[in-house]
């Protein structure tokens, strides 16, 4: 149960920044080679004709196979953030994964036509495009037309095909006509897909750009496991960044794929150019005709409304003034209609990117931990009588009444008798001392047995069913370690490390020693150990368990967890694994990437305003694409100094932040009773429940008013009623003038809420449990879905008070009364 309390090696999340596109590189040319010819890598088609001697009209030879795509650059050590200026290693734009882009074959120039488009014709294999048919020559006009100025690029016809059927060099490159790069979410440097859950709102982004000044657009295309396709227009994050983003709600479990289409925004370019030219009287009729053609393309290509044809007719109506024709096309209604059905050209598609989507419990949950042996335990003259699954059922309604929906049980197996620990981790247990549940196994059985004091397999099934009737899922502890008298020690001695003196090495984390635990050596008979692991998990899944809290996974090889989790979740997609890995960032991040659906965090040791602001930005930032945090306020192993010396205010502060900052939070039984006395010199409760029974009188504490169970109940009710709190990636940290007042918000647009109403929660917390603080807070109203300078009402969901706020507001927080405002923003 060793814990490593380390500061995370991450940086504060910054607003999304564009990755710097690579500089253009001019290829070296052989003497006499034109710069317009394709570079030598990938190879050009065999036997290209010399420029001075056009080839005979013969069938061109097939080109050499293009080189395989280059592997994305490796990121720094997982868990460390790259510099903000560095591009994300992600997809490059191609027309299909791993293939060169198929670029439209040039066609001979033709006279402008009202239905002209820049759609790509069908193409064959790269290097062998279909040859276009020769168009009919237009009839000569009866009168010579007036000379017209050169048309802008978005209206120009494609260039003629290369002479003699030469292959188009554009088909021999890996870059699309509109480059689409640096897609996110992905896991940098990892072969594993990014993750989301059903109901989660995810921001998808990419860097999209082109040569010159013509405007471009980007479209997110999502394909669900069922085959349903969702399309979402992406918006430019900030001018000059070339970074486009779109939000999408994920509504189906399974493996999704997504890509981004970059395209020439001909309508946007026309709107920009026409406003300038028509206003200046330059090329007026040409610009109006181009606008009419684009409106017709919107109808024909993008299912635009038929009413756009009337607007096109107005643009061609020479009896009207140019200004009135321009105003008809540039009205907000027309502009919105065309932008909703844009006439796209030069469409370039990125490669497909996978996204693993799991059930919502992998992200959202309120966890409560108790030891079933303590629930219903009785002290008698002859010692303790253990609680059981049957007696522990009586506590389930109380847990449900507080709003918790996951009930976590420490190991339920027989406990070793050899080297059993006594009270407060002593080596001298007395008769009747129950020992630590994490010292698994004895002559009574191992990981597939239930401690006889707790009951039978059928009793466990009944307990799981009773919890389910109260809306609670049961999470079982899964600890791959053994007591010295575990059956495995004699049945599978090869699964352990043997010392030169013939003894088996027990667990150590110097200077700590765990004489009651033997660690498994996973490099000896890995196939046998993995098969046994799957057998054990299947047994508990058969009892109705779908959540496993894994003890110390960071002390086992990563490959083992990757294999086990994949094997189990392929059979049972609803099963999830929670990593109790208080360790270094690289290991925590990698465990999440290879399959763990959820993880403990460093939250318990982030206490100051600065530490919390940085950590909240970190866990809700880019790593949210694979790492799902659960904020535990305390555990049997963790009673921080903040809680030891902060009293009731400290317990309220830590619970309020945990419950509102991330979608999953957890408490260990006794938190509501303010059990704050530590064993001297440690961060553990004195008389720790790991080594003995606990008799708690929950009802008496509530009658005396010494329990904060009502406060925890209110927090969980707020969480259920506000969907913004059930999201992870929507957190924004704001500023206050006091170094002990933390301010953050969570905002969810009405497009993604069940009611259709925007939901915004603003939290202002005094993180000093010993003082009264008053200060000014300064809000980024755009992050709240409000315009700068707006005034609005905030409703305190704890005290039921209402205030009028704006960009800046005054707060006074008395830690001894209510240390935290949880404010619902009432949108005007």
* Largest sheet, spatial ordering of strands: 22-21-20-15-14-11-24-23
Percentage beta strand? 15-25%
Shape: globular
Helical coverage, percent range: 10-25%
Alpha-beta classification: alpha+beta
Main sheet, how many strands, which sense, barrel? 8 strands, parallel
How many angstroms separate the termini?
51 Å
Give an account of the 3D structure.
- The chain is of the alpha+beta class.
- It is built from 16 helices and 33 strands.
- An 8-stranded parallel β-sheet has the order 22-21-20-15-14-11-24-23. Strands 2, 4, 5, 8, 9 and 10 form a 6-stranded mixed β-sheet that branches.
- The protein is globular, with a radius of gyration of 33 Å.
- The N terminus is likely disordered.
Q: Would you spell out the secondary-structure blueprint of this structure?
A:
Layout: E1 180-184, E2 194-197, E3 201-208, E4 216-223, E5 229-233, E6 235-236, E7 243-249, E8 254-265, H1 266-280, H2 284-302, H3 308-315, H4 322-329, H5 332-340, E9 344-349, E10 353-358, E11 365-369, E12 378-380, E13 383-385, H6 389-392, H7 396-401, E14 406-409, H8 457-469, E15 473-478, E16 481-482, H9 487-491, E17 507-509, E18 512-514, E19 518-519, H10 526-541, E20 547-551, H11 558-571, E21 576-580, H12 585-594, E22 598-599, H13 609-619, E23 630-632, H14 641-661, E24 664-668, H15 698-704, H16 709-721, E25 731-733, E26 735-736, E27 741-748, E28 759-766, E29 772-778, E30 792-796, E31 802-805, E32 808-814, E33 820-826
Parallel strand pairs: 2-10, 11-14, 11-24, 14-15, 15-20, 20-21, 21-22, 23-24
Antiparallel strand pairs: 1-3, 3-7, 4-5, 4-8, 6-7, 8-9, 8-10, 12-13, 16-19, 17-18, 25-27, 26-29, 27-28, 28-33, 29-32, 30-31, 30-33
């Amino acid at each position: 149960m060793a814990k490593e309390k380390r500061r995370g090696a991450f940086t504060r999340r910054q607003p999304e920044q564009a990755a710097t596109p690579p500089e253009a590189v001019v290829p070296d040319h052989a003497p006499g080679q034109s710069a317009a010819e394709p570079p030598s890598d990938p190879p050009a088609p065999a036997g290209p004709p010399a420029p001075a001697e056009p080839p005979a009209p013969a069938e061109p030879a097939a080109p050499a196979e293009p080189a395989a795509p280059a592997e994305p650059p490796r990121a720094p050590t997982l868990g460390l953030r790259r510099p903000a200026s560095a591009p994300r290693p992600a997809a490059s734009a191609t027309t299909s994964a791993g293939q060169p882009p198929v670029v439209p074959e040039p066609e001979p120039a033709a006279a402008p036509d009202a239905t002209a488009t820049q759609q790509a014709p069908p193409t064959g294999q790269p290097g062998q495009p279909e040859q276009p048919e020769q168009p009919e020559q237009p009839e000569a006009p009866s009168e010579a037309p007036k000379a017209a100025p050169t048309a802008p690029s978005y209206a120009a016809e494609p260039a003629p095909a290369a002479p003699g059927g030469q292959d188009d060099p554009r088909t021999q490159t890996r870059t699309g006509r509109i480059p689409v790069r640096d897609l996110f979410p992905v896991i940098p440097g990892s072969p594993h897909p990014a993750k989301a859950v059903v109901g989660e709102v995810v921001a998808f982004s990419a860097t999209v750009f082109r040569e010159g000044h013509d405007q471009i657009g980007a479209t997110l295309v999502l394909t669900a496991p069922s085959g349903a396709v969702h399309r979402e227009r992406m918006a430019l994050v900030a001018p000059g960044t070339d970074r486009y983003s779109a939000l999408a709600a994920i509504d189906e479990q399974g493996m999704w794929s997504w890509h981004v289409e970059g395209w020439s925004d001909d309508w946007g370019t026309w709107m920009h150019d026409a406003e300038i030219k028509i206003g200046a009287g330059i090329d007026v009729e040409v610009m109006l005709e181009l606008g009419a053609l684009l409106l017709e393309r919107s109808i024909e290509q993008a299912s635009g409304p038929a009413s756009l044809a009337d607007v096109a007719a107005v643009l061609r109506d020479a009896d009207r003034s140019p200004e009135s024709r321009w105003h008809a096309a540039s009205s907000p209604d027309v502009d919105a209609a065309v932008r909703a059905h844009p006439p796209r050209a030069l469409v370039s598609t990125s490669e497909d990117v996978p996204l693993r989507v799991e059930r919502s419990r992998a992200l959202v949950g309120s966890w409560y931990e108790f030891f079933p042996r303590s629930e219903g335990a009785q002290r008698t003259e002859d010692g303790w009588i253990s609680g059981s699954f049957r007696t522990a059922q009586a506590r389930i309604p109380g847990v449900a009444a507080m709003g918790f929906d996951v009930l976590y049980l420490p190991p339920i197996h027989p406990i070793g008798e050899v080297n059993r620990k006594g009270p407060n981790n002593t080596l001298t247990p007395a008769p009747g001392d129950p020992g630590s549940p994490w010292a698994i196994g004895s002559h009574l059985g191992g990981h597939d047995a239930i401690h006889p004091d707790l009951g039978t397999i059928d009793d466990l099934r009944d307990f799981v069913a009773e919890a389910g009737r109260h809306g609670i899922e049961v999470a079982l502890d899964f600890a791959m370690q053994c007591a010295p008298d575990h059956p495995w020690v004699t049945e599978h001695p090869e699964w352990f490390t043997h010392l030169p003196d013939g003894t088996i090495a027990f667990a150590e984390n110097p200077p700590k020693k765990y004489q009651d635990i033997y660690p498994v050596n996973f490099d000896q008979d890995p196939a046998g150990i993995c098969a046994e692991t799957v057998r054990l998990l299947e047994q508990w899944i058969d009892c109705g368990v779908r959540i496993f809290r894994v003890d110390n996974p960071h002390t086992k090889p990563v490959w083992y967890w990757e294999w086990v989790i994949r094997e189990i979740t392929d059979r049972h997609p609803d099963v999830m694994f929670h990593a109790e890995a208080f360790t270094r960032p690289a290991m925590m991040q990698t465990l999440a990437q290879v399959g763990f659906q959820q993880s403990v965090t460093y939250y318990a040791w982030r206490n100051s305003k600065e530490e919390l602001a940085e950590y909240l930005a970190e866990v809700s930032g880019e790593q949210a694409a694979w790492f799902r945090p659960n904020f535990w306020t305390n555990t049997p192993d963790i009673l921080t100094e903040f809680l030891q010396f902060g009293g009731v205010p400290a317990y309220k502060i830590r619970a309020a932040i945990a419950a509102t900052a991330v979608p999953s939070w957890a408490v260990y039984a006794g938190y509501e009773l303010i059990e704050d006395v530590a064993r001297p010199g440690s961060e553990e409760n004195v008389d720790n429940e790991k080594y003995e029974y606990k008799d708690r009188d929950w009802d008496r504490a509530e009658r005396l008013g010494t329990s904060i169970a009502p406060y925890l109940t209110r927090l969980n009710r707020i969480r259920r009623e506000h969907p913004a709190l059930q999201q992870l990636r929507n957190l924004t940290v704001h500023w206050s003038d006091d170094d002990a007042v933390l301010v953050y918000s969570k905002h969810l647009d009405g497009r993604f809420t069940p009611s259709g109403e925007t939901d915004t929660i603003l939290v202002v917390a005094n993180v000093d449990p010993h003082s009264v603080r008053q200060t000014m807070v300064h809000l980024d109203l755009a992050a709240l879905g409000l315009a700068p300078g707006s005034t609005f009402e905030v409703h305190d969901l704890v005290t039921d008070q209402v205030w009028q706020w704006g960009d800046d507001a005054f707060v006074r927080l008395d830690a001894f009364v209510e240390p935290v405002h949880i404010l619902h923003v009432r949108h005007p």
